[in-house]
Write a structure and sequence with these properties.
Length: about 150
């Protein structure tokens, strides 16, 4: 049994979660508004982002990464393949297996989307002093590494 956290720590953590949740929602809206590529559903968007971070990847690993079932991930990948954003390739370590990877078009779409989002975020980030931006990078990296894969 773990000891209860002090009320002040719990309150601060709850406030942080609330602020992060609001920020993530606003960033998701911003990212969607910056996307003028093919119409993708949420699972396809998540799969595309996951592929950009870890490709090539087997379908089951992709499904786990985006927290969905293999059939749902398979449908998402099929849509990405049809849109020319991803492709299935033979796994070089197990020729019976298939991996999914981005096409050049998919990589270009992700890169362009990131550039548009960055252009929108940069003015807000530049309002912070350089030391605060550096600290924010370190904090976000620490939070990202503490999350489950």
């Amino acid at each position: 049994m773990t000891a209860a956290r002090p009320a002040l720590e719990r309150d601060a953590t709850e406030l942080l979660v609330e602020e992060l949740t609001t920020l993530f929602a606003r960033l998701a809206i911003l990212a969607r508004s910056a996307d003028d590529g093919p119409a993708l559903n949420t699972t396809q968007r998540l799969a595309l982002i996951a592929l950009a971070a870890a490709e090539p990847i087997r379908l089951q690993a992709l499904a786990a990464r985006i927290d969905t079932s293999s059939p749902t991930a398979s449908r998402a990948v099929e849509g990405l393949v049809e849109a020319g954003l991803a492709e299935r390739v033979t796994d070089p370590e197990d020729r019976r297996a298939v991996q999914i990877r981005l096409t050049d078009h998919g990589r270009g779409l992700i890169g362009e989307r990131r550039r548009r989002v960055a252009a929108t975020l940069e003015p807000a980030l530049l309002t912070l002093p350089a030391a605060e931006r550096a600290r924010l990078v370190a904090l976000l990296a620490g939070l990202n590494s503490a999350l489950p894969a």
